[in-house]
Amino acid sequence: MSFVFLVEQVLNGLQFGVMLFLMAAGLTLIFGVMGLINLAHGSLYMIGAFAAAATAAATGSFLLALAAALAASALAGAVIERLVIRQLYDRDHLDQVLATFALILIFSEGARWVFGSFPLYLAIPEALSGPVTLPFGIEYPRYRLALIGIGLAVAAGLFWLISSTRIGVQIRAGEADREMIGALGVDIDRLYLLVFALGAALAGLAGALIGAIQSVQVGMGEPVLILAFVVIVIGGIGSIRGAFIGALLVGLTDTLGRVLLPGLFGLLLDPAAAASVGASLASMAIYILMAGVLIARPQGLFGSA
Amino acid sequence: MSLNRETTASLIVMAALLSTVLWAEATGEPFTITLATRAAIFALAGIGLNLALGMGGMVSLGHAVFFGIGGYAMGILASHAQTFTPLTTWPILIEGTNAMPVIWLVAVISSALAALAIGALTLRTSGVYFIMITLAFGQMFYYFMTGWPAYGGEDGLSIYVRNGFPGLNTLDPIQFFAICFAFLACALWLYIRVDASPFGLTLSAARQNEARLRAVGIDPFRIRLVAFTLSGAVTGLAGALFADLNRFVSPAMFSWQTSGEIVIFVILGGVGRPIGPVVGAGLYVLLEHTLGDVSDYWQIVLGAILLAIVLFARGGLTGLVLGRPLPHG
């Protein structure tokens, strides 16, 4: 296993991690401010990917596709917030789970109805295709490197938004005491709508960006949603910083586990057995990580107890 | 009084299910019997979940794990019996089997053990954490079964002959239904008994006011863990029966959709009532069958119904008929 190969895999893990962060950040914000668990967040991811694929097919422009993804997912988020989610803030978590599960059924079957069951294809833009040469002669796909850049930039923007703007102050105040900021004259309805649409847009952006390296299809959102839950459990609910660290941990553990574990078992077992045991264990690695965090710190790494 | 009303409702619904099947047998419609069997098995899984969800307030989105383990208990044992290869020869020789009682026993024990382990980890948390973590453990099992090539991996396992029960011809739809119905009746009886027992009251107390339960010196964690284990065992038994109904198991039994469906059975019918999951599972199978014939996209309608129930008819279908459950007298 060469140094170059290892660096590539670490980069892959980072790329996976920052994309998970885009999903987890929205989920954790929505939970932190509104106390809502949103299972339909994966559907917003899927809506972003479908909007991007359809727009790219119609116009051929990747930038327009990204804009369409942001707009479509933010709009879908705003619409479901107004029609459904709003009724759920005061309900218990069971009601929230069920209503958002119902939304998954509606969105998934709706997408299957409109776009069919076959995966759509979203091409990597010309300017970002092909490899780029990094120091030490490491060749790495330009698009994946761009994803890491975009992810880090969005993360930085989000930290700035939350720590230094008026909206950010309201969001943090909302996390601390919802009723109080309403009493202080902040328009709670508008703030909730904004936070939900922001989370939705982040999910849609992740869907569109990932859609170019995987296929765009119905059901693509839920596996990512569940990974984002693992991220949040590890990082601590409501903490953006926790979501960031958790996302990178999960991204790196998953990617490196898949690469390293079969090799590690190869030292003990014959190659065929090592490959199958290693692969099975690698798919469980992040859940084992989650169980470990749960035993040590049930409230997550950055969660308040 | 409340218990009487609930018990009466349970008897009526069970009698309705039984008479539907007898009528189908008399008029020669084996497919209806198969649908009723499917509903009975789903109801059994739902009663299992209701022990944790309704009585204990534990919103588990990971019950597919136990359903799947039950299914694979049947799949693994029967596939070894089918190919005449032993499961393992070391340290002791274990052969496959196609005797249903053995399979049920293995399914119940292994899903109970899994529930004990998962419960011990997840019940350290509560609320949203619990929901997310049970969902994540379900996904872990799903990926493990998909990646494990020994028992079919992604493709699953086909069992060509339904397993046997001494004295019955299990391939005859109504005889297999009788087995499932008997288990359903036992589970219903178990649920009602547990609900009325000191253990059930303590469990409900843990749901309603944890601080007070602690104040009288009872540790809610242990009560919940016992309930979660029992819940997993019942759902695991349903998984074994479901595998025998289809004579097929696949990782789809472990998927998050399966977990969601089991929750839907409970909610459609009415959470925390003995008969709720039976009504919910019956309605689900009815919708799946009638709407599935009309449109491939029937789940949109299911989603809309579910949404309407959550937003406007809390308490599910049973709640609409019987009103909200009264507190225990």
Describe the structure.
The complex is a heterodimer of chains A (about 300) and B (about 325). Chain A has about 300 residues and is mainly alpha-helical. Chain A has one domain (about 5-220). Chain A contains 11 helices and 2 strands; from the N terminus they run H-H-H-H-E-E-H-H-H-H-H-H-H. In chain A, strands 1-2 form a two-stranded antiparallel sheet. In chain A, a hairpin with a 3-residue loop joins strand 1 (about 130-135) and strand 2 (about 140). In chain A, helix 5 (about 140-165) packs across helix 6. Chain B has about 325 residues and is mainly α. Chain B has a single domain (about 1-320), classed as ABC transporter involved in vitamin B12 uptake, BtuC, CATH 1.10.3470. Chain B is about 70% helix and about 0% strand. Chain B has 13 helices and 2 strands. In chain B, strands 1-2 form a two-stranded antiparallel sheet. In chain B, helix 2 (about 30-55) packs across helix 11 and helix 6 (about 175-195) crosses helix 7. The mean pLDDT of chain B is about 90. The interface of A and B includes residues 229, 237 and 294 of A.
